[in-house]
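I'd like us to work through together how a protein chain folds, taking it slowly. To get us started, please write out a protein record for me. Go ahead whenever you are ready, and we will take it from there:
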Amino acid sequence: MDTEEGSELPSSKLGTKEHWDATYAEELKNFHENGDSGEIWFSLSCQHRLVDWLKKNVSSKETKILDIGCGNGALLMELAEDGFEELTGIDYSPAAIELAKQVADTDLHSHNIQFLVVDVLHVDDSLLHQTNFDVILDKGTYDAISLDPLGAEEKRSRYIRSVSALLANGGIFLITSCNWTREELTKHFDQMLSPEAVIPAPTLQFGGKTGQTVTSLVLQKHS
């Protein structure tokens, strides 16, 4: 979605904690009843693209990786299957973290993932205070914050400060968005992070125009 410079996205229930608590409570119920581990946001193919990029560009399997808004933990579980060892997932929804823990318990590769109930906007009050990560991932959380009906612009600023505080100097931040373009994301984070790469996504053609519905951008923290 293209927006005018400096504009905010229209608010939505997708930006509220109440929506995500209800969503993950339902997914937790479904997991108990039929073993369905829940939705993978932005599709499984998008998740594979992110994991493939990390496998090619992150040399150490002991790299400390944080997934913000981890949901059911699917992204971290795929990284665990590929041998990454220092994995942490946070989400502000207790039901999401409970789902992630229970799904991980069924996966032989995922015993090393730490899942924590943490609101990234209040990270100073959490167990992650003063923790630095080499890689931080976000697949949709910044989008959700941008849709919050109550103070989205201020919350986006707090989010950016939290990411910078959690990221080690020279560390990389990999953000995936369907609401902000590459140029908009670069501008939002430019005080603290510099763009390093774009992870290619399939293009679509409509009305004679070609474009992407999802942007995955790699940024690096200023040293």
